[in-house]
Design brief:
The chain is α+β, with helices and mostly antiparallel strands. The chain has three domains: 105 residues, Trigger factor ribosome-binding domain (Alpha-Beta Plaits), CATH 3.30.70.1050; 95 residues, Chitinase A, domain 3; 166 residues, Orthogonal Bundle (Trigger factor, domain 2). The protein is built from twelve helices and eleven strands. The strands form three sheets. Strands 6, 7, 8, 9 and 10 form a five-stranded antiparallel sheet that branches. The chain has a four-stranded antiparallel sheet with strand order 1-2-4-3, sandwiched between helices. A two-stranded parallel sheet has the order 5-11. It is extended.
Amino acid sequence: MTSTVEILDGLNRRLTLNVNQAAIEAEVSKRLAQVARTVRIDGFRPGKAPKNLVAARYAGEIRNEVFGDALQQEFSAAIQSNNLHVAGYPQFAPAEGGGFIATFEVFPEIKLGDLAQIQVTRPMVELSDTDVDRTLDVLRKQRVQFHAVEREAKQGDRVHVDYLGKIDGVAFPGGDAKDFPVMLGEGRTLKDFEGSLTGMKAGEDKIFDVTFPDDYFAKELAGKTATFNVTVKSVHEAQMPEIDAAFAMSLGVSDGDVGRLRDEIRTNLSREAKRRVQAKIKEQVLNGLLDATPIEVPSNLVSMERSALMEKAIADLKARGMKDADIKLSESVFEPQAKRRVSLGLIMDAIVIEQKIVVGEEQVRALVDEFAQSYEDPSEVVGWYYQDAARLKEAKALVLEENIVNWLLERAQVSDETTTLEALMGNA
């Protein structure tokens, strides 16, 4: 075979493979002869069937195999001789007058832009006792206990009610419940409904109107006014646990030392703050890298990445209990993310090759140790990683990415900005 390469638009290339028909037929005849020596056909002993009968049954299949093998071999030889780096898979089609045409994309040539134009704001966080206190309050609220009281309901109470709602005198689906719990002040129910319960005692009845918002999720109720008949069954007061030895023990501090509990919380907050800071820096660095180094992305690779992202999203939704019929996703939703991931992957691969960036085994172990610190038995987690090559490969990939980001960070414009833990966590 002989081949010629055409440069089409962008990254697209076309390779014409001219078939030596005589060589193809010779190979077909050779393989048919091999098959004829051992083939079993009814009415004939093994290897004794007439050649024309063997050819009629197997020639088509063998010819397809010979063409396929020849095309792959010629295609591989052609891209090597032309120094082409194919992205994705080629598409083969018959050419006019014989032969075949292979259409494919190549990887783009990547030339790094001005990395000094990358601007990064690095958050600087100093943990305080207030941060620890705030976390303790969250932990206390998670362990709150409710006790029935005889007084009027107020903000922070949990009220259990029976209710029946009607619109124009007619009950509507979802408009009734028995012993339904409502947390006053949390806004989980409609504001007017929740507000009407404030000040009521156990055993009291009340009738009031509630207008559903225009953007209410149940479209058939949006903008309509319902009349609710409500009976308060009970009022419960929230009581948070004291920060004492029992509380510390409930959080895993075996000796109940509250000081040790605070130290552990500070350590965990410090670890989370570090992770958030690294994530924010990484996002800025990679965004800057994309801006500084625009490239044309092979659509073939974007398509494969888009499909992979969609498959993962569907698997996640199924794991959460959604049924296939309820999952309404389109691959187009994942187009921007897929293009970004492919672009970054190509550029970062180029950096690794050009700068000879490597991953040290001690770096991988340090990362695994860091992951393990948040578990009760760190050694068990470390063993879990090192017992599986795929898990260890993921850790190595994270270290490589971190090394690339650090290399870019040394060349970027970095300014420090003091912030609070609350702001860093997105709660401020």
